Each structure stands twice: as structure tokens, then as C-alpha cells.
Amino acid sequence: MDIKVNNKIVIVFDLDDTLYNEISYLRSAYQEIAQKVDANNWEILYAKMFSLYRCGENVFQYISEQYSIDIQELISLYRNHVPNIKPFKGVSSLFEDIKKAGGKIGLITDGRSRTQRNKLEALGLIKYFDEIIISEEIGSEKPNEANYKAIEKAYPDCLYCYIADNIRKDFISPNKLGWQSIGILDNGLNIHFDGHLYMNKPFMPKYFVNSVADINIT
């Protein structure tokens, strides 16, 4: 898919499962927690944690009971660790192409400030963003229009495009506001996989692509 970019367009991205697979963040956090909790047998604990997660069990409750660790301490470790994650193929080159064409790059993501910013630093992407909107920092979550209007306020009188993955909440507001919207198809590893429940006009992006690598800047 081609996007024509100049100095009057802002290309805005979601983060989790759009620029990288969020499951890799979970793996990274679980590994660090397992190593802290049971350094001599962390591989076995990690395997157990991941199996519990996939079966819909409460992983932190299990660890808390087995190792006498407060759940809030585990949650803090999960949220605040520096993750070992990598962006999808083509993300960095796409960002470079947008910048070379004079476009602005924004981010709209739900989550805690430290967690999301740690992800951006680990991915090596934070340097590209002209505007970052994180739900904890702005006080509202998608699909609240305020999150998108914050981009419009920062860069008025522009064209806007939102690239994201979650049909349930990502595209409602940009569609209402007249933005272009592009959905990244689930590669089979997405955390949220209930998109079939929302496949009607208010929720759907205007276009779909298989991956970020399929987007070209002209």
C-alpha cells in the first residue's frame, strides 16, 4: 500500500502488536521474573508460567503462593522491567522514509507511561516520534477522541493517518474524525484476537495490510 507523504501529513502508529508482537514483551517479563524468583531453576518456572498464561490461569497468583512473594511486587517487576524486544521487519525503514519525505510521526498507545516508554526505548524507535500520546499521561484511553485530538492539536491543519491492529478500539475515533485508517492483520501472535466480534463499519479500518513492511512511502 502506498502513502503519499509530505510536510502536511502526520502518520500515527499504535504500539503493541502493531510495531512489534506484544507476546514478546510478556516472554521477556516472565523470563526476568523467573530468574529473580528462582535463579537456579528459572527455565522450569518460566515454562510453567507461560503454560499457565496460555491456559488462562493467574500466573502471578501461582508464583505468589509458591514462593511467598506479594503479587504487587510481581506486577511491578512485570510493568517496569526493561524488555528484550525487537520491532517488526520494515518498521525502522518505514520511519526513515516518512522522515525523509518530511512527514511527522506520532504514537497513540494505551498503557502506563514507564511501561510504554521502556518498550519504545528497547525497540530503538523513540527517537523517531514527534508526538507521543500514552493513555496514563493524557488520562483517557482509546477509543476516546481526546487521544486523537491531542495529535491534531499538536499538528493542526494536517492530514492524519492511524496505523494499528485492534479492531475493537483503534479505529472508531479516527474514522469519525476523518483520518485515514490502516489495519495491520493479525500474524497469529496478537494478544487480542476477538476482532471477529467487531467487524462492522464503525470499528473497521478503511484499509488492511499484511504487515508494516507492506506500506510504502511515495
UniProtKB/TrEMBL annotation:
Gene3D superfamilies: 1.10.150.520, HAD superfamily/HAD-like. Its cofactor is Mg(2+). It is an enzyme of class 3 (hydrolase). Its EC number is 3.1.3.-. Keywords: Hydrolase, Magnesium, Metal-binding. The keyword Transcription regulation does not apply. PANTHER family: GLYCERALDEHYDE 3-PHOSPHATE PHOSPHATASE, N-ACYLNEURAMINATE-9-PHOSPHATASE. This is HAD family hydrolase. It comes from Euzebyella saccharophila.
